Amino acid sequence: MSYLDENAREVIRPVKRMVEDEFLSRPGVIGVDIGEKVTGGRPTGKAAIVVYVCAKGPEHPRQIPVEVAGVLTDVVAESIVLHRARAVRYSDEQPVAGERHAVLRGGIGIGPARAFRIVPPDVPKACDYVIAGTLGAFAVTREEPRRVLGLTTFHVGCVDDSWAVGDEFVHPSRVDGGVPGADEVAVLDRAALAGAVSAAGLRMGGRPFRAEVLEIGAVTGSARAEIGSSVRKRGRTTGLTYGVVESTEATIRLDFGDGIGVRTLRDQIRVHSAERFGDHGDSGAVLVDADNRVVGLYVAGSGSTGFANPVEPVLRQLDVELLTPGVPESRRPGPAA
Fold first, then answer.
1. Which family does it belong to (predicted)?
2. How confident is the model over 290-313, as a mean pLDDT?
């Protein structure tokens, strides 16, 4: 697989920024990115503005011009969905027996203790559901007193517009057999949904934890995702998966459901994998590079393609820094108040 050099991206970037909002306003368009134009299933080696559509049909070539300001376009059929937890109707279904860890690490399942009313068209019929997602990594607040937070996404930590600071979280999630109270590990402390970020910070309680990601190892810090670099993620549903960063400037529209609606996330990391990279329940997992540095927070995808927030805006908006094994014990406070 070839990757566009930075010179090509530098030429396309301002044109992409100029047209992306107008393209996103058109029916069926769900994303705008920079990539290599593919014709007849074959890469052409030419740089293009890539336009993701829900379904590729005869109307799309007419609504998306062949080129803009001398830059080629490429229309790609894609389904980009939030990979927050699968929702299970807890009233009449038995929970799945999920992983249970006495010592918490990144990459494990987590979910709100409360149930959520979800209505069509998101589900076949209106009912109360419970949610599962992934606890990605740990961070430390920058303000005093310093507190340890678990990182996940807004759509796992908050779910809808009825969220409140202090909401209880359990491991395993209720989808996976967790019990409110008995399995409480954290409470919601803060959240952000703006710009490039869908994130939440969960204030950790008394359960022991390590600044590691399961099956990956100790977190060594944070870094920018580099195009062409290999990354890994460990999610609640698909476990450990591998991919390659193909873009760091995808703009995607995601439906957060009732009360939140469709939101646009910009400058997202796009990852391609030879196999399935993520699935429902993996939202909140962190993307880690070859040096075990966190580069992104996984939010959405479709089969072999995954999308993630770049980590630096996540840390900035939540006002935290990543926790690594080298952080002094004084920065690791006890149970949440």
1. Belongs to the peptidase S1 family.
2. 97
Indicate the fold that domain 6-78 takes in CATH.
Alpha-Beta Plaits (3.30.70)
Strands 71-77 and 42-53: parallel
In the CATH hierarchy, which fold is given to the domain comprising 79-328? Thrombin, subunit H (2.40.10)
Answer whether 294's CB lies under 8 Å from 285's CB. no
pLDDT single digits (tens) 56-115: 666 555 689 999 999 999 999 888 999 987 666 655 545 566 799 999 999 999 999 999
168, β-bridge pairs:
187
- From the CA atom positions of the chain, what is the Rg in Å? 20
Span(s) in the chain for CATH 2.40.10.10: 79-328
Q: How far apart are CA 16 and CA 32, in angstroms?
A: 8
Strand partners, 203: 149, 187
> In the predicted model, what is the mean pLDDT of residues 216-234?
97
Instruction: Give the pLDDT confidence of 181-218 residue by residue, as tens digits.
Output: 999 999 999 999 999 999 999 999 999 999 999 999 99
- CATH 3.30.70 intervals, the chain: 6-78
0.85 exceeded by pTM: yes
Q: Closest Cα to residue 263, out of 31, 53, 26?
A: 31
Question: What CA–CA distance (Å, rounded) separates 105 from 184?
Answer: 15
Encoded amino acid at 166, one letter: G
Distance CA 311, CA 199 (A): 10
Backbone φ and ψ of 308, nearest 5°? -145, 145
State the burial class of residue 11 (Cβ atoms within 10 Å of its Cβ: 0-12, 13-18, 19+).
Answer: middle
**Residue 182 to residues 100, 178, 209, 307, Cα–Cα distance (Å):** 13, 8, 17, 34
Of 214, 113, 185, 197, residue with least CA distance to 153: 197
3-state secondary structure of 313: helix
**Residue 145, preceding peptide bond in cis (omega within 30° of 0):** yes
pLDDT tens-digit map of 14-35: 999 999 999 999 989 999 999 9
